[in-house]
Amino acid sequence: MDTLRIYLKLIGISMRSRLQYRADFVTGIISVIVLNAVNLTLIGILVNRFVHLNGWGLWEMVFLYSFWVMSHSLYSLLFWHFNTMEDHIVQGTFDQFLLRPIGTLVQFLGREIQYIGIGDVIVGATGLTLAYSHLHLDWGIYEYTWLVVSVLSGTLVETAIAWIISSLSFWTTRSMSAFFVMMRLNALTQQYPIDIFGTWFRVVVTGLIPVAFINYYPSLLLLGKTEQAGSWGWLGMMSPVVAVLLLGIALLVWNRALRRYSSTGS
């Protein structure tokens, strides 16, 4: 409980610091909304040209993308700081987290909040609402509960992958190339159903770097498309399990990385 209180206090300090520059705050959020709008427009143009992509229509694609945006928004808000681990290792500033009598991870994550994630929340919520309406979905309490669980699971999946990759910096010093690979795979799975890329790609984003569990597999279940996915359809209910497993692996890698850390600071 004390750890959570400290973390929330650090996040509050970070947010108040960001709000001191209100113009930058608003501009950042608007830029994210515009970027997402452009991505959705490109999806619309693509689907309009081909009518559907392997059985996925326009509003199903909007749902898929918006689902990813919602999960990513929470990662962006609270855990984006993992992307900066390389800088802290190279510059030696990670040492400061080890010298204070507070949990290292709590300090690191509480150092900064990426406020532009608010723009993702707005786009994701709007997109899901519009897609729900146009697809004439009729969900009950189970589907709404599963949506919330799946969005949170997607956030944890992305967070765990980023956590593992950032921990590699303790061995390699540099980890941005690995982050780049994750972002490229994310870019493909966020906008398109992975079954259009073939089996090899599905295997990579399911088993190797499992970003497909952020939005694709949960969407199969919520949109009633598990049968269309064939033998892969059952994975639609596995996002929470994958999230827990990945977090466990990430924690193990992190703890081992901390034990072998030696400063490279100047």
Automatic annotation (TrEMBL):
Pfam families on file: ABC2_membrane_6
Keywords: Membrane, Transmembrane, Transmembrane helix
Organism in which the protein naturally occurs: Cohnella pontilimi
Superkingdom assignment: Bacteria
Transmembrane feature ranges: 21-46, 58-80, 113-132, 144-171, 192-214, 234-254
Designated name of the protein: ABC transporter permease
